[in-house]
Amino acid sequence: MREIKFQFIIDGKHLSRSYTLEEILSKTDQDILEEMEVCTCKFNEAINHCECSPEFENSTITGKRQYTGQKDKNGKEVYEGEIFKDVLGSEKTGVVKNGLYSHCFDRSEICHGGHVGFYVDFGTSNNIRKDLKYWCNHSVTIGNIYENAKFQT
C-alpha cells in the first residue's frame, strides 16, 4: 500500500518537508510555516550582533503536492510536479500529474483512454509513454515545476 504524504507549496515556489496524513490533520497552516522558518542573518556592526529576518514571515501556503508512492531510478521520492527528462535522447521533458489520461503508443494517434492516476505529461507529444512507473524505472527527476523558473506560470 502506498504511503500517503504531502509537501506544501509556499508562495508558489518553495517546498516544505514531507508530512504524513496524520501530521497534516494535527497541524495548522501557521504550524507548517513556523517549521519552515529559517532566519537570514545579517551582521550589524553597530551593535556587534547578527540580526535575523524570518524568510517566510509574510508567506502563505498556496497548494500541496502528493507523494506518488514511486521513486525514480536513483531512489528519490516522486511527487506531483516533478519533471522527468525523456530517456530516448530528445530534449523533451514531462511533468508528473494526477488525473485522467490516455496512452498513444504509436504515431497512428490511436489512443487508449480511461486511465486514472499519476502519469507523466509530455504535452502535445502523443507518442511518448505516460505511465509513471515506466519513467520511475528508466529515468530520474531533474527538478520540479515549483522551484524551476522555466516551468512556472
Structure characterization notes:
This protein has a 4-stranded antiparallel sheet. Strands 9-8-7-10 form a 4-stranded antiparallel sheet, covered by helices on one side. The chain is 13% helix and 46% strand. It is built from 3 helices and 10 strands. It is mainly β and 153 residues long.
The Rg value, from CA coordinates, equals 19 Å
State the strand order across the main sheet: 2-1-5-6
Contiguous low-pLDDT stretches (5 residues minimum) are: none
User: What is the count of β-strands?
Assistant: 10
The biggest beta sheet reads: 4 strands, antiparallel
Oligomer: single chain
Number of helices: 3
Q: Which outline best applies?
A: elongated
Q: End-to-end distance, in Å?
A: 34 Å
Overall mean confidence score, pLDDT: 80
The run of helices and strands is EEHHEEEEEEEHE
The assigned structural class equals: mainly beta
Strand % is: over 45%
Helix share bin: 10-25%
